[in-house]
């Protein structure tokens, strides 16, 4: 049992580690980078602030990206550029999910043939 002020991340294999905000900052910076936001530092700060409000004391690695997307969502009404940032983050989430399911291109081909999506 961890104290309530210590946040932990639970990995898919069940192991835990102390939550590292630096990893979240990098993920936010990746989503903001290349967007048309006027001040990337302000965007990162706003998203982080919302993320911290949504972050439970214990979170699974697969939940973190969803929480980050939920942290961006309320900012869209403030400035449409956050829709662009949310889209960039969602694309990253989809790419990660596809890679987890099909680590190699041949895995995708095999699945496609078996499911009769490809021939």
Written account of the structure:
This protein is mainly α and 119 residues long. It is 59% helix and 8% strand. It has 5 helices and 3 strands, in the order E-E-H-H-E-H-H-H. It has helices spanning 21-32, 40-54, 61-72, 81-101, 105-114, and strands at residues 8-10, 16-18, 58-60. The protein has a 3-stranded mixed β-sheet. A hairpin with a 5-residue loop joins strand 1 and strand 2. Helix 1 (21-32) packs across helix 2 (40-54), helix 2 crosses helix 3 (61-72) and helix 3 (61-72) packs antiparallel against helix 4 (81-101). The longest helix has 21 residues, at 81-101. It is flat. The model has no long low-confidence stretch (mean pLDDT 90).
Summarize the structure.
The protein has 5 helices and 3 strands. By secondary structure, the chain is mainly alpha-helical. A hairpin with a 5-residue loop joins strand 1 (8-10) and strand 2 (16-18).
Which SSEs are present, and which pair or pack?
Elements: E1 8-10, E2 16-18, H1 21-32, H2 40-54, E3 58-60, H3 61-72, H4 81-101, H5 105-114
Parallel strand pairs: 1-3
Antiparallel strand pairs: 1-2
Helix pairs in contact: 1-2, 1-4, 2-3, 3-4
């Amino acid at each position: 049992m961890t104290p309530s002020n210590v946040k932990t991340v639970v990995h898919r294999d069940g192991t835990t580690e102390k939550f590292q905000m630096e990893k979240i900052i990098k993920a936010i910076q990746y989503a903001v980078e290349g967007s048309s936001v006027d001040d990337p530092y302000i965007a990162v700060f706003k998203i982080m602030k919302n993320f911290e409000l949504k972050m439970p004391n214990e979170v699974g690695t697969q939940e973190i990206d969803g929480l980050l997307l939920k942290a961006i969502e309320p900012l869209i009404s403030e400035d449409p550029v956050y829709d662009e940032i949310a889209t960039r983050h969602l694309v990253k989430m989809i790419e990660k999910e596809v890679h987890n399911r099909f680590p190699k291109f041949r895995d995708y081909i095999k699945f496609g043939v078996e499911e009769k999506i490809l021939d």
